Prior knowledge:
Elements: H1 3-19, E1 27-37, E2 39-40, E3 49-50, E4 54-66, E5 74-76, E6 81-85, E7 88-90, H2 97-101, E8 109-111, E9 115-128, E10 143-146, E11 154-158, E12 166-167, H3 173-179
Parallel strand pairs: 1-11, 1-12
Antiparallel strand pairs: 1-4, 2-3, 4-9, 5-8, 6-7, 6-10
Amino acid sequence: MKLYPMIGCLLCLSLLTACNPNNKARVNIVYDQVANFTEFKLSPDAFSATSTNGMFVQYSIKQISNNGSEAKTFVFEKNRIVAITPDSTSNAEPGADNTLLGQKFAHNVTVAAGQTLNNVGCIIKNVLTPNPQLLVSTSGFVDIIHQTDSDQPVSMKRAANDSSVALVTTALPSVLQNLCN
Length: 181
C-alpha cells in the first residue's frame, strides 16, 4: 500500500517536468503566411479541388534555428504543424500539396544542433473553420504551431514583415510557387 503514494509522487513530478520546457534546447521557426484560397487546380483545365469546411492557407518557412546551449537534433515535420483558429485546430493538408508547390515544397528536414536553415520551403494547411469567410481577406491571418515536447520546445513566430496575405481565387501550381519566394 505504501507503493501508491510513491507512484502518485512520481506522476506529479513527471507532470511538473513536462510543464517546464527546456528553453536551452528551444528551436525557433520563423514563417510568413503568404496565401489563403478555397480551391485549387493542378492545371488550368483540371477539375477544382475545394475546401468544403474551411480554407487552404499557404505558409513559407523562412528559418529554422536550432542554436540553444542544449540543442539537440531536431526534425521539422510538416504534418506536425497545426493551424489554430478561434474555433478549431487542424493539421489537415491537401493531398496534392507536393504537386502544387513543386520545388518550393518544404519536405521534412533534420536540423542539427547549432544549425540554422533558411528558406526551407512552403507548406499548405487546410484550416478548418465553420466560417471560412472570416479568412477571405488580406488580414485573414491563421497562426500555426509545431507539436513538440518539453525536452525540445518549438517556438513559431511570424516574420517581422508578414503584414498581408494574398487572397488567391483559383490557385494553380505556378501561382503558389511564385508566392513561395
